[in-house]
Design goal:
Layout: H1 34-38, H2 52-63, H3 71-100, E1 104-108, E2 112-115, H4 118-124, H5 128-136, H6 142-146, E3 152-154, H7 158-172, E4 177-182, E5 190-194, E6 197-201, E7 214-225, E8 228-230, E9 233-235, E10 238-250, E11 257-267, H8 273-277, H9 281-284, H10 286-294, H11 309-333, H12 340-343, E12 344-349, H13 356-367, H14 372-382, E13 383-386, E14 397-399, H15 400-406, H16 408-426, H17 432-469, H18 473-503, H19 506-514, E15 517-519, E16 527-530, H20 531-538, E17 541-544, H21 547-557, H22 559-564, E18 569-571, H23 578-584, H24 587-597, H25 619-644, E19 653-658, H26 667-683, H27 686-689, E20 695-700, H28 708-725, E21 734-739, H29 744-750, E22 756-759, H30 771-777, E23 781-784, H31 790-797, E24 803-804, H32 812-818, H33 827-837, H34 844-855, H35 866-884, H36 887-900, H37 906-918
Parallel strand pairs: 1-4, 1-12, 4-11, 12-13, 13-17, 17-18, 19-20, 19-22, 20-21, 22-23, 23-24
Antiparallel strand pairs: 2-3, 5-6, 7-10, 8-9, 10-11, 14-16, 15-16
Helix pairs in contact: 2-3, 7-37, 11-13, 13-14, 13-16, 15-16, 17-18, 17-19, 25-36, 26-28, 26-33, 28-34
Bound molecules: N-acetyl-beta-D-glucopyranosylamine.
Length: about 950
């Protein structure tokens, strides 16, 4: 039984204690009789207070019915006991907020990548001492039961994890706010490696119950789909019930406990008894099956669009339920919906929840009877939108046909919104569309005339040559006639073009660029709803997630909107919670920091980390800093051994790249550099080998199930590991590890152990990155490009402490253009790639397309510029090796990473959102 969670159908487990230590408690039969546990424990002041160990005992017996408390059951008993305290804190906070009625922010997100809750909740509530004590009575520790918890992996990657960090910070800052999302029955798929390839297994994360949620059968809303429009009255022909589950979110060092409300989907009628009695068993449960589908899976969608109706259904489902819920709560205290923007701000996390623009309009107009204009004023004062990517494939566009079918009323409203919007663009101050149209027209004219002038010159040259070549008067006359004719023809062509041009309505051409509904450029005739444009039109604020990204969205993604409403566009550089990502995942470093600073206040005020700077100069402190890193490396080495069987020494540099596998993140470039390193080590003499800086190269990350190239990259990494690690010639000089099923819990073990971390995306493609911040805060060096938040990390740490390489974002377009004729490969690149091609890592055919994608301009065009950046990447790697040999200097700078990057606390980010977008103030209990 107790192993079911460890290995069962979940595939590879997250970090946890070895099986041998997961045994029934040493304390013998731990469950006393009912009589015994009913005896109240009295406290010093005589009140009847149940002590924690007793409470756990009760839980073991009555909730878990577990006479033999193994580690899993002990975990659950602690979890349910913590649950009780969370519910208390939750109730008090929500009551307080209800009474005070402050403005709330509602964070709408299709993803929340929460990870485990136990350690975080216990520490945030300051109960670690009490629970450690209670567990001691069962012969267990908090760290011991920690591993029995399954990650709540309701997210794909950075965007979902950011949402989870934001909830922690909102609660910590006492900001009234809830998250809203979907309670997926299956979270992010589990990744396993089979025969060297990634396989995806379902994530049955709810199998053992979930102590971290509260089911709310009393909070239900209907959500409709499909059906017909009768005028503007919508009659859906499919309806489901959204039922709420609340996940309490305790703040750190505060009484505030806020909420993540997740929706489950239920059928209106679970079983159609008539159909059943008539023997139509499938029909009898059809409604249930359809509802089940909605909250079943998280789309494994990192940066690729799945044109799935079901996905739009999911998006609408949770958005509709969340808006209905917030409006209902607003109306408990207020009667006029015009005041909604004073009490609620909805932050749309990427394009996934942006159907909220149309749904809020529908609720206000159809359900609450407001006129369009009034509804629009409320909507545009309540919604804000965060963009998280510039990848065109991830900026969702829904075919009008799909929207029309699934949400006919919303499509109608989107058309009305668009019409009103375009009409307003037309009458913008200074006749914006007209003057822009005139400019466009003038530009086209100039282009035409320049082409005509060039052609004329060509012709004149040809005529002159013909004339010169003509020796007889007849030939001369013929040449003159030909020249004249050519001139007349050219004039006719120009005239025709001008006539065509006169027919073009330049104002409407301009308006097209603003339109929310656009033609599919790859499939003429198909019309699409551009959800990002809908979000921009419907929001009062639009933000990017790092300084460079916020500029790129202004210049490349929404420039036309910026012209009209520059004040809407903002930057909110991402951050991470220092609780989970430093204090709890690295208690050893945390203790050292607290000792040095003389306070643990940095956990809540990250700017205090700057106080570590002088300690970088202190040799004794540096030694202790190194000792902590070493201990974390040892823990990771142990984990690597347990999971992969590979034995790695703790002496080499731990070099890490963990993140979703994506071509733009360029794990392939890292792989090629490792192959080159490996090849060179093999060619070296024993003397030369002594000079090599040994490394353990660690990878982790999932490839989206349908992402062809990403899966090949995983396979290549696994193949390199198999070859290198089994090559006795190389020994400890190089080891390569692919840790399967990278998730939050894996990250918590990997990040504190890293000495170098790689953030090497093609400049301009990674919106921000957030693991770069986690690594930096844990004293890991960064090798990276001038991309996303790397740039701001450089500004905070001092660029001299980062290993920056590669081209800049502004050079990318030109280089992509030039690559058509690119031949100038770095010889190291070619040598390593040739080796892959020759089958040194097996599967030469399988890797062929991957190699071609970067090396064959006819089959791929190295779109992400790996070959282009390779030489400077290798140079940067040489610098890394050089610095690592000077451990004192390395450690000195490692301390500066932690000291310099307090800026990247999500508390800072959330404080900025609250002040600069949401206008939400703290509401704290006395
Ligand atoms: C991701 C970006 C990351 C960024 C996170 C959080 C999506 C769509 N975007 O660079 O790729 O750090 O969002 O903002 O997942």
């Amino acid at each position: 039984m107790q192993l079911a969670l460890a290995s069962g159908r979940c595939g590879l487990p997250a970090p946890r204690r070895p099986a041998a230590s997961r045994r029934p408690s040493a304390r013998g039969p731990v469950v006393p009789s009912v009589l015994e546990i009913n005896k109240p424990a009295s406290t010093a002041n005589g009140s009847r207070k149940l002590d924690l160990a007793d409470e756990m005992t009760q839980l073991l017996k009555y909730r878990l019915a577990a006479p033999n408390a193994d580690t899993d059951k002990l975990y659950q008993s602690v979890a349910w006991s913590v649950h009780n305290r969370l519910v208390d804190a939750f109730d008090k906070t929500q009551e307080h907020w209800k009474k005070e009625d402050p403005k709330h922010v509602y964070y709408l997100s299709a993803e929340f990548l929460m990870g485990r809750t136990l350690t975080n909740a216990v520490h945030n509530m300051g109960l670690q001492g009490e629970y450690a004590q209670a567990l001691k009575q069962f012969g267990e520790t908090l760290e011991g039961v920690h591993g029995a918890e399954t990650d709540a992996a309701l997210g794909n990657g950075g965007l979902g994890r950011l949402a989870a960090c934001f909830l922690d910070s909102m609660a910590t800052l006492d900001l009234p706010g809830w998250g809203y999302g979907i309670r997926y029955r299956y979270g992010m798929f589990k990744q396993a490696i089979k025969d060297g390839l990634q396989v995806e297994l379902p994530d049955y994360w709810l199998d053992n119950g979930n102590p971290w949620e509260i089911r709310r059968p009393e909070t239900r809303f209907k959500v409709g789909f499909y059906g017909k429009l009768d005028g503007d009255k919508w009659v859906p022909d499919e309806e489901v019930i959204a039922e709420a589950y609340d996940v309490p979110i305790p703040g750190y060092g505060t009484k505030t406990c806020s909420n993540l409300r997740l929706w489950d989907a239920l059928p209106l009628v679970e079983l159609d008894l008539d159909a059943f009695n008539a023997g139509q068993y499938e029909k009898a449960v059809e409604q249930k099956r359809k509802a089940d589908d909605i909250a079943a899976v998280l789309y494994p969608n990192d940066a690729t669009e799945y044109g799935k109706e079901l996905r739009l259904k999911q998006q609408f489902f949770f958005v509709s339920a969340s808006l209905q819920d917030t409006i209902a709560r607003y109306l408990e205290k207020h009667s006029d919906l015009a005041g909604l923007p004073d009490k609620a701000c909805f932050q749309m996390n990427d394009t996934h929840p942006t159907i909220a623009v149309a749904e809020l309009m529908r609720l206000l107009i159809d359900v609450h009877g407001l006129p369009f204009d009034k509804a629009w004023a409320i909507t545009t004062k309540s919604l804000a939108y965060t963009n998280h990517t510039v990848m065109p494939e991830a900026l969702e566009k829904w075919p009008v046909a799909v929207m029309q079918k699934l949400l006919p009323r919303h499509m109608q409203l989107i058309e009305q919104i668009n019409d009103a919007w375009l009409a307003s663009v037309k009458v913008q101050p200074r006749d914006h569309a007209a003057s822009k149209g005139a400019k466009l027209q003038a530009a086209k004219k100039a282009e035409r005339e320049a082409a005509a002038a060039a052609a004329k010159e060509e012709r004149a040259k040809a005529a002159a040559a013909a004339l010169e070549a003509a020796t007889t008067p007849e030939a001369k006359a013929a040449a003159e006639a030909a020249a004249k004719q050519a001139e007349e023809e050219a004039a006719a062509v120009l005239k025709a073009l001008e006539e065509e041009d006169a027919k073009v309505d330049y104002v409407s051409e301009v308006l097209k660029s603003y339109s929310v509904i656009q033609e599919n450029q790859w499939n003429k005739g198909e019309m699409l709803v551009n959800m990002a444009y809908l979000a921009v039109v419907g929001s009062f604020a639009v933000n990017g997630v790092a300084a460079i990204h916020s500029e790129i969205i202004k210049t490349d993604i929404f420039p036309q909107f910026v012209e009209l409403t520059p004040e809407k566009f903002q930057n909110k550089t991402n951050g991470v919670t220092l609780r989970r990502w430093l204090a709890y995942c690295n208690p050893e470093l945390s203790a050292l920091i607290t000792e040095a600073l003389g306070t643990d206040a940095w956990v809540k005020d990250a700017t205090l980390l700057a106080g570590l700077k002088p300690f970088a100069e202190d040799a004794a402190f540096r030694k202790r800093w190194r000792d902590v890193k070493f201990a974390k490396k040892a823990a990771l080495a142990k984990h690597i051994k347990e999971v992969t069987g590979y034995e790695v020494s703790t002496q080499p540099m731990f070099d890490v790249q963990v993140k979703r596998i994506h071509e733009y993140k360029r794990q392939f470039m890292n792989a090629i550099s490792i192959i080159y390193r490996y090849k060179k080590i093999k060619e070296m003499s024993p003397e030369e080998r002594k000079k090599v800086v040994p490394r353990v190269c660690i990878f982790g990350g999932k490839a989206a199930s349908a992402y062809y190239m990403a899966k090949k990259i995983v396979a290549l990494l696994v193949a390199i590991a198999a070859k290198v690690n089994n090559d006795p010639e190389v020994g400890d000089l190089l080891k390569v590890v692919f840790l399967p099923n990278y998730n939050v819990s894996e990250a918590e073990v990997i990040i504190p152990a890293a000495e170098l971390s790689q953030h090497i995306s093609t400049a301009g493609t990674e919106a921000s990155g957030t693991s770069n911040m986690k690594f930096a805060l844990n004293g890991s060096f960064i090798i990276g490009t001038m991309d996303g938040a790397n740039i701001e990390i450089g500004e905070n740490t001092g660029f001299e402490n980062l290993f920056i390489f590669g081209v800049k974002a502004e050079e990318i377009n030109r280089l992509r253009e030039e690559r058509k004729d690119f031949k100038d490969y770095d010889p190291r690149w070619t040598e390593a790639l040739e080796w892959v091609k020759a089958g040194a890592f097996g599967r030469a055919d399988y890797f062929d397309d991957l190699v071609a994608s970067v090396n064959d301009m006819t089959r791929g065009n190295d779109w992400f510029l790996l070959a282009n950046d390779f030489a400077s990447y290798m140079d940067a790697q040489d610098e890394v090796d050089k610095l690592y040999q000077d451990q004192e200097e390395w450690t000195r700078r490692s301390i500066l990473y932690t000291a310099g990057n307090g800026f990247f606390s999500s508390d800072r980010t959330i404080d900025q959102y609250a002040k600069e977008i949401w206008n939400v103030q703290a509401c704290r209990q006395a």
